[in-house]
Amino acid sequence: MTKKTAIITGAGTGIGAATAELLAAEGWKVVLAGRTKDSLDSVAGKINAAGGEAIAQVCDVLNEDDVKALIVAAGDRLDALIHSAGQGHCLTIDELSLEEWQQTLDVSVTGAFLTAKYALPLMRATKDGEGHIIQIGSLASGGTWYLEVGYGTAKGAQIKFALHLESQMKVDFEAGGRKINVFSVCPGTTDTPFWDRIPQREAVPELTLAASEIAWMVGEVIKKPDTNAEELKAIKPRAEIVIQRQAPFERWDNVVAIKHESHG
Ligand SMILES: NC(=O)c1ccc[n+]([C@@H]2O[C@H](COP(=O)([O-])OP(=O)(O)OC[C@H]3O[C@@H](n4cnc5c(N)ncnc54)[C@H](OP(=O)(O)O)[C@@H]3O)[C@@H](O)[C@H]2O)c1
């Protein structure tokens, strides 16, 4: 039997790279997607050198042909799709250009749509166990802040996409299809290259989460897809981590926030 296989977008850096490393260490074959070949090759090289199985696939999640090729690169089975590709900014509406607005919205939302749309046929056809689609949202998915009019709108829409998709996956399962779980992990400030393009704020390592801590939550959600904020809080890897239901999506178990205690 071939290894369980996960596609991870945004896997050349940050949360996506940490998630790929964690899943590969747990025995998954991982397919790494992003636009920059060098960073994908570097993460894949590290995983393969450690005895794991990683494939680097250059893919802009906004390019339909790239996304189709990404699914082909996964091979004959697909068990998880983790959409971590994203970009952020801290800008008011007056400062925000149309280009930045569209790019931020597109990578979060259109990227989530395209990757799920083309992953689903292979994920459904894989009959061994359950499938998982996990969105890396943000505290900004639910919060309101004057410098996140673009980013917060994009990350909020990404969670709504996930919730609508989940309702279809339930209908499909009831009709005899593979059980495919949909979950949104919503991090607070995390120390990654995300902040390199945002001069207005910085991630202070002692006051933020590490990418590996977001990856930890993804790993736990895959192991126990019907988990919730309360269960995850009970097993958090260090005291300074706060795990809670993500407002205003509290009524859904499958939308969970994770942040450093210093994050208001
Ligand atoms: N860091 C934080 O504080 C934080 C907090 C909350 C939520 N998040 C979310 O976490 C996710 C991961 O971010 P991160 O912190 O790990 O930052 P990151 O290191 O900048 O990772 C984002 C990745 O997305 C990739 N990407 C961007 N546009 C893409 C596209 N069109 N197609 C394919 N890949 C694309 C980038 O690679 P290429 O440029 O090579 O394509 C990059 O590797 C994002 O969705 C972000 O919104 C981050």
* CATH superfamily membership: NAD(P)-binding Rossmann-like Domain
Q: What percent strand?
A: 15-25%
Task: Report the helical percentage.
Answer: 40-55%
| Contiguous uncertain segments of 5+ residues | none
Q: In DSSP terms, counting alpha (H) and pi (I) runs of 4 or more, how many helices?
A: 7
Structure description:
By secondary structure, the protein is α/β, with parallel strands linked by helices. The protein has an eight-stranded mixed beta sheet with strand order 3-2-1-4-5-6-10-9, with helices on both faces. It has a two-stranded parallel ribbon with strand order 7-8. The chain contains seven helices and ten strands. It has a single domain (5-260), classed as 3-Layer(aba) Sandwich (Rossmann fold). Bound molecules: NADP nicotinamide-adenine-dinucleotide phosphate. The site of NADP nicotinamide-adenine-dinucleotide phosphate has 32 residues, from helix 1 and strand 2.
In a few lines, what is going on in this structure?
The protein is of the alpha/beta class.
Tag the structure with descriptive keywords.
264 residues; alpha/beta; Rossmann fold; eight-stranded mixed sheet; two-stranded parallel sheet; 7 helices; 19% strand; globular; binds NADP nicotinamide-adenine-dinucleotide phosphate
What's the structural blueprint in terms of helices and strands?
Layout: E1 5-9, H1 14-25, E2 29-34, H2 37-49, E3 53-58, H3 64-74, E4 80-83, H4 98-125, E5 131-136, H5 151-174, E6 180-187, E7 190-191, E8 209-210, H6 211-223, H7 229-234, E9 241-245, E10 255-260
Parallel strand pairs: 1-2, 1-4, 2-3, 4-5, 5-6, 6-10, 7-8
Antiparallel strand pairs: 9-10
Residues 9-10, 12-16, 33-36, 39, 59-62, 84-88, 107, 136, 138, 187, 189-190, 192-194, 203, 211 line the site of NADP nicotinamide-adenine-dinucleotide phosphate.
